[in-house]
Amino acid sequence: MSDLFWPGIERADGLFDDAALLAAMVAVEQAWLDALVDAGTAPTRVDLSGLLGPDDLPALARAAEAGGNPAQPVALALRERSGSAWVHRGLTSQDVVDTALALCLRDVADTIASEVAGQVSRLAELAGEHRSTLMAGRTLAQHAVPITFGSKVTGWLTGVLDAADRLGALALPAQLGGAAGTLSAVTELAGSAADATALVDATAARLDLVAVVPWHTSRGKVTAAGDALLSCTDAWGRIATDVVTLSRPELGEVSELAPGGSSTMPHKRNPVLSVLIRRAALAAPPLAATLHTAAALAGDERPDGPWHAEWAALRDLARRTVVAGSQATDLLAGLRVDGDRMRATARGAWSDLTAERVAIAAFSGTDVGTDNYLGTSDALIDAVLARAATYLQSAS
Questions:
Q1: DSSP state of 137
Q2: Active-site residue 326, yes or no?
């Protein structure tokens, strides 16, 4: 799936695109129909696989406008092509769309989690390797106190681990509530409220999703997913911002493995991966904000517009996060660190970097020592590396 407006989007091919959503909607219809058959409610098992595919997407997309959502034309087409009137029976459009979105999100989350695990391993390696690599710490773009590159990397690592925790805490649920979240039609079909609930549980199990009470207008599940994705782009954006700064020619402390060139200036070595990661980090918060705004305005038993606004925002946020995650992995894998340049810059600015220490010595009446004024850097690095090791062990 090409997109000239978002270079690199091909890294997300097959995830949360039109074809993936269609396949997910068919999977929901199949799981529901199978549950009806297994419960003895529907008479005949029907295989829906292969009845709709990518070639049907243009017609389905056009037909979706009439009903305001893509589940309607999908359900109608599946009924017609399968010859089974039991397709979609007892479901509503929101059941199919929301549950399909959960399936798409699960694939995205699994892909990102794999990238994050590799990033944690690489960052832990960098932090250990550069535990003692002296560099200038900078605050508000000015020299502050001495740090090591290892301690800077542990800051990056902490952000990625925090994002991994939020990603791992996602519990993606099925949404199966019928027309207004009461399962009224299903109860009539199945014969009792208990049987209706059992159908929901069976369908969720077939899809390997969590079975919960209907959440038609309680959109916390959606905002939680958006926030987990946003925490990832935040963490990667922070790393990319440091790389962009430290790779400036006047600093030259790090560089990308394969910097980009210029169409006119042959000397340019642009940190392109970092630039594209920062792009994602800048664009992600408004998409997550759309999800929160939609959640706040989700009235009645099916929202009149806020629900519809979620789909594209969630798709773009998910796909762009996948892209940024892949680019962050490449950035870290090829990151070049010039430790000599870092040390030279720090030593050249030593009087500024240790001005705080001199002031403290004057205040306390103590002598200025001769070490590197690194405080508890080693202990902090050890603590974050221990957290990373625990994470990697649980992720393996």
A1: E
A2: no
Query: The tokens of 36 are what?
Result: 């009806």
Catalytic residue list contains 2: no
Residue with tokens 């957290």: 387
pTM of the model: 0.95
* Inter-residue contact 105 to 314 (CB < 8 Å): yes
Sign of CA pseudo-dihedral 110, 112, 118, 124: negative
Rounded CA-CA distance 51/166 in Å is 37
Q: In angstroms, how far is CA 370 from the centroid of its own chain?
A: 45
Alpha carbons 64 and 89: distance in angstroms, whole number: 19
**Number of C-beta neighbours around residue 7 at 10 A:** 12
pLDDT per position as a tens digit, 361-391: 888 877 766 667 899 999 999 999 999 999 9
> Domains in the chain and their CATH numbers?
9-395 (1.20.200.10)
- Catalytic, out of 262, 336, 347, 394: 262
Cβ distance 202 to 44 under 8 Å?
Answer: no
